[in-house]
Amino acid sequence: MNEHDQEKARAIEESRRLRQEKKAAAIERSHQFRAIKGLRDILPPESAQWSRVEQTAREVFGTFGFAEIRLPVLEATNLFARSVGQETDIVSKEMYTFIDRTTELRPEPPIGEMPSYVEEIGRLMESGSIPGTEPNRATFKYLIALGKEIFPIEEKLSELGKLTEYLFQLHGFQLGDSVSLRPEATASVVRAYIQHGMQTLPGNVKLYYMGPMFRRERPQKGRYRQFYQIGAEVLGTSDAPGIDAEVIEMLMRLFERLKLKGAVLNINSIGDKNCRPAYVETLRAELQKVREQLGADSQRRIETNPLRVLDSKLEHEQAIIEKLPRIADHLCDACRAHYAEVKRQLDLRGIAYQENWRLVRGLDYYMRTTFEITATGLGSQNAVCGGGRYDGLVELLGGPATTKGIGFAIGTDRLVLSLQEMGEGATPGGLDIYLAWFGPAAQSAAIGLARRLRDAGFVVELPAVEMKFGKSLGLADRLKARNAVIVGDEELAAGTFTVKRLSDGTQKKLNESELFEYLRGERA
Ligand code: HAM
Predict the structure, then answer these.
(1) Model's pTM, two decimal places?
(2) Cα torsion angle, 285, 287, 293, 296, sign
(3) In 123, 382, 385, 468, which residue has its Cα 20 to 30 A from 432's Cα atom?
(4) Residue with the nearest Cα to atom 14 of ligand 1?
């Protein structure tokens, strides 16, 4: 290797090293902050697919007379404990819960200021800033009594702050209200229905919602900690099976419009408060007999919620579960008639379904009709939608006993995933026109033209700074623009625009009205 070659090799090596260093620095920077585990960003072009799904839902639901309700993402923890159920996985393990404490008071008192700290608690409890719950009032009284003995020696106790915190925990004292990120939205809809006295509205109240829900589950494909639902609820005095069927029809109509293939509707009836308790006891008794053959989760559920054993996916439990008593054989007459009529109403609408006696759902508020829709391409998390009837829920949350309810929620993440797996709904890059301009006079003409093109509905990219011709048209190519419109001194002098179709290089000189006509033709 001569000296020149050696020099060249060194230069190549140096530039390789620099490139690697730059790449490593970029990776390091990108690792500084990442989305929290189980939470994700939805980026273009996928986000366009999400919008399309949501827009289609708005249109379809609108034709069934549903209107949108926008709900808060934070609710009182108790709302979910009461409705979804304290013992359910969702409430007992998966909620993001925190104390929304008053900002005026620190969670532990500064050493040496205990008497004024306790006084402050009293004041804040009186004003309502700290909840005046029973445990709070009792702890407060206790603190005062304790204070009489402790305050005099307080300054000597460096750990007093921690001690108070411990006392708070021990006695369930809360410096604020316990709130949770919503794990689902049916409870919120019912809360809003009661809060706003919607029972006085004529007919059934039909509401839909869309937005993020939060459950601290183990993340995997189709299962996230922040996920999205599109849901709908019908609240009113009637529990007519025709309502159940129409809600399902609406759902199937949406899936059809979105061209979702392979959707399978599973339905069941889980009875009501008249017949289910007896069935649950029968089931529990049978489960006790096979207890030793069941896994730890199912064993625990024999006590907490035997119905949930039917949900088990454990291979070795399947044969055992198949032999268990089935709810269909234990429904009371009213529930049996209701279920039969739901099925007839589905038939009337030409909706195919599979009966699945094991479909019990993981939320406590259901009664009678339950349903789930599975879709293809989702692996084990294949339920794209779940729903059912919840007639007692409005009363349970303090509303009128006469109000019945039914609804569903679609997992939007899963719906989009399934559509993607089928190659359905990917939106093509949407740039109609790259508007290249050269020179200050052309920039001002281009700004005006861009506005008129956008007003006419074209998607226009207007470079913010002047670029060389080759670079500008190169960018138009990389942005996958369908056409480049070129404005330079020559065009300005002639009162025309040059338009170039980027797929084949066809070029034309047109005046503005011809240009609009041409571009409309290109879009069609
Ligand atoms: P759910 O079955 O708990 O029902 O959730 C409904 C749908 O949300 C599921 O079928 C699934 O597609 C999606 N989903 C649930 N958890 C996750 C997750 N961690 N990641 C991704 N997707 C998920 C409810 O939430 C009820 N509120 C439905 C309802 C409305 N019932 C009556 N009205």
Answers:
(1) 0.86
(2) negative
(3) 468
(4) 411
